[in-house]
Amino acid sequence: MTVPGAGTRALGDGLFELVDTTIPGCVELRPRLQEDMRGRFVKVFHRDAFAAAGLATDYAEEYYSTSHRGVIRGLHFQLPPHDHAKLVYCVSGKVQDVVLDLRVGSPSQGGHKLVELSAEAGNMLYIPPGLAHGFCVLGESATLVYKVTSVYSAAHDAGILWNSAGIAWAVENPILSERDRAHPTLADFASPFVYGGRR
To answer: What domains, with CATH codes, occur in the chain?
Structure first.
């Protein structure tokens, strides 16, 4: 299922380019990359710019994962009341990043979006509550950073089986954790998330 996006627009006096995806509330952010003979400088968060775009600005945790070629992590989310918005980006390597809309009543309910995130591009994906998230490593390894708006709660940690939502993953026989092999299918998941039309 696809939903036309509203396009691309500048954010924060050109700090970011915001690109709508086919999933309402889920946007790709392309920061302004500053490069010279020393290397690169990238701003990944600006509170006022994010607030002006209706994106979350109060992040409770930040962490990263390093994964090897052929790994799929996902599709992960937290259940209410510990659900959260998430901002993800690569600081090394590249991934095929995936979001799956679990929100009842969403125009893209059950639909998904693939976005390639890479350290080279410096792009990020903003993921609102009610979406499952996962990724597949496209090179030898990748390091993905996550900023989330709620603290991790083991009792509310959940997922959807990686191959149950019609996603065209970049690998056919991925390396998976036992936890990710045991998630319910999308068809068997009774979603508690309700679409509210907000980011």
So the answer is: 8-181 (2.60.120.10)
CB 131 within 8 A of CB 158: no
* Residue 47: CB atoms within 10 Å: 12
The predicted-structure confidence for 21-32, as pLDDT tens digits, reads as follows: 999 999 999 999
* H helix or E strand, kind and range, residue 48: helix 47-52
List, in sequence order, every residue forming a beta bridge with 101; answer none if it has no partner.
Answer: 131
- Which of 76, 112, 133, 183 is catalytic? The answer is 76
Residue 172 has a CB neighbour count (10 Å cut-off) of: 7
pLDDT, position 196: 86
As a whole number, mean pLDDT of residues 182-193 equals 98
Q: What is the pLDDT of residue 6?
A: 57
To the query of whether residue 146 is one of the catalytic residues in this protein, the response is yes
Catalytic choice (59, 146, 183, 195): 146
Find out whether 105 and 25 touch, Cβ atoms under 8 Å: no
Read off the tokens for 66.
């390093």
The Cα 31–Cα 42 span in angstroms is: 7
